[in-house]
Amino acid sequence: MSSVVRTTPEIPGSVRFQLFLWYKDPVLFFREVFKLEPYKYQAKILREFRDIKRIMISAASDTGKTMLLGAIALWFGVVKSFCERRRCQVVILSGAREQADRVYQYTREALISNSTLYPLVVSERGKPKILKSYVEFINGSWIKTFARALTSVQGVHADVVIVDEAAVKELDFYIKDTLRIIPEEGVIILSSSPHDYNTEFVRRWEDKINYPEYDPKNYPNGWRRYHWEAD
Fold first, then answer.
1. Model-level pTM?
2. CA separation for the pair 108, 203 (Å, rounded)
3. Residue 102 and residue 98: Cα distance in Å, rounded?
4. Which one in 12, 57, 91, 188 has a CA-CA gap of 20 to 30 Å to 205?
């Protein structure tokens, strides 16, 4: 018999209250979980992403983009799912396994170091089980990373798909496939430091006719584009 805990025990009121505060204010979540003050461009996305289903980020390398994506994955997988009392399944894809693992690593380290989040991980033999590329929570939510291989995402369904370093030709198929992976109300986040110009990511970034800018009234399923320079 497996020792993995599958039922959801009663969560202490103090934990529920902390999750509620983070649910209302993702900037506070980032600040308290990662022990850092977000940059202005990070804070802007953290204040807005909850209401947007389609996001594109084009930003310079080494500007905190990967940590931001890790925080968003964790917010959906834990904070949103527990506060809304429904499972949330998060998939992280990238042009290379190492990059997907980098996003997940921020999530993993935050789970291990935070006393509110750590007990919400499924336990095995009394110890929270956080694997190298997968973590499951006691309410059935999970976060997974996948290698760039056709077989890796076949049959996969999730509520949130995050594609990092998306501007590489090899990821065009996976970007197009995101609509199969998620339900109609699901969330897609494409992020990159642009590399190859002739890619699906760049086409979507530039094509505001077929991929209109997000507007809560006219285009609620439109794309919100974020960009910042290295300086």
1. 0.90
2. 33
3. 6
4. 91
- Annotate the chain with three-state secondary structure: CCCCCCCCCCCCHHHHHHHHHHHHCHHHHHHHHHCCCCCHHHHHHHHHHHHCCEEEEEECCCCCHHHHHHHHHHHHHHHHHHHCCCCCEEEEEECCHHHHHHHHHHHHHHHHHCCCCHHHECEECCEECECCCEEEECCCCEEEEECCCHHHHCCCCCCEEEEECCCCHHHHHHHHHHHHHCCCCCEEEEEECCCCCCCHHHHHHHCCCCCCECECCCECCCEEEEEECCC
Residue-wise pLDDT tens digits, 180-217: 889 989 999 999 986 678 899 999 999 999 999 999 99
Place of tokens 């925080």: 71
